[in-house]
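ZP: hey, is the zinc ion complex queued? I don't see it on the tracker
AM: it wasn't, my bad. submitting now with these inputs:
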Amino acid sequence: MTRRDFLWLAGMSSAGLAASGSLVGCATDPVTGQPRLMLMSEEEEVAIDREHAPHQFSNDYGVVQDARLNAYLTEVGQSIAAVSHRPHMPYSYQAVNANYVNAYTFPGGTMACTRGILVDMDDEAELAALLGHETGHVTARHTARRQTQQLLTAIAIGGVTIAAGQSDRLSGYSGAIYAVGALSAGALLASYSRSNEREADALGLDYMVEAGHDPEGMVDLMAMLQNLSSRDPNALELMFSTHPMSSERFNTAKRQARNHPSYDRTQGRERYMDNTANLRRIRPTIKTLQAGEADMARERYSDAETKFAQALKQVPDDYCGLLLMAQCQTAQGKHREADKYLAEAKAAYPGEAKALHLSGVNHLALNRPEAALADFEAYERNLPGNPNTLFLKGVANENMQNRRAASEHYRRYVQLAGDTEQARYAAQRLQAWES
Ligand SMILES: [Zn+2]
């Protein structure tokens, strides 16, 4: 395999999925109680959530294996959900192993906080503000509204007929939503508008206060984020691209917090400290990994490697650290070194899909297609529903001279993938083998 081939395979995201659905029309806005044109039903919101969230979590190096921490996030999150405009949604709350500073929600209420943001907060009221804001995105149905807007735009520019014509299985509007609904997990997280943010802030503040959390927590959370962004803009890049921050948001929170009663925060602070103790113990490691990731983004691999090595010296079995080191090695073409870190990562977090994906691709680079295939099969068992895995299994089978199995995988991939470089390659192989 050439280096170019490797990069091409490595570049296949482990989370590229399509969302589709049918139309529903007018719905009652849960927040205002007014009718609102909504082309995504609640069932679809939940279905999209269930389909995408596991892939995003794996992209973020899996759920933190700390039952106490996750139970604590759930407890604080549930207190907010209970007083929200959509208490019946299937909310869930987890910490993920990513080091960047962010929190996000899927439209059904599956939420995650990165360990990066959890170690930068120090109070339950801040956590309540964060989860309150995310809950506001769910109750105001911001994802469904954006999807509706995109579909209306597609109709307005005449996209419907073209899109509908492309799909035999779907017709009319469904065809259109199939086309515009082709969002990757990343795209589902992509930017809310400023007015969405304003609304989520206001709802979040109401909910957290109603649930008994001090409103100043919202002000402190925003102050922390603003502070961090002036010191270390890289760590917050993704957070601000999904949740645009502004001094206006900060000032509004300050003004609105004053309209609510305040609560004593001593106990909440203690609870937060107790329940995040395991994470806070490795805060320096998380910060070092953050800095290494910033080096990686600038292609300064030897600087990144030094930082990852330092982090792994502190916490040798850190799953995220091991995978970052492996990615840093593969970026430098050092596949044998990467293999060692990938094996350690697989042992550190058995069954977590990201290590299996990266390990499979690295095995292809090392010309070990059998081992690669075993990884991709394990990946699929643990995290089904990623069409890219079909392609990778096709490549592994092709390298094993197993043409029949390779054709089968390539054929299924071509049907699902749309027009990608990989699909063109697969189609070309199929054609060559048929003739
Ligand atoms: Zn937001």
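AM: back. DSSP finds 24 helices and five strands in the chain.
ZP: great, adding it to the tracker
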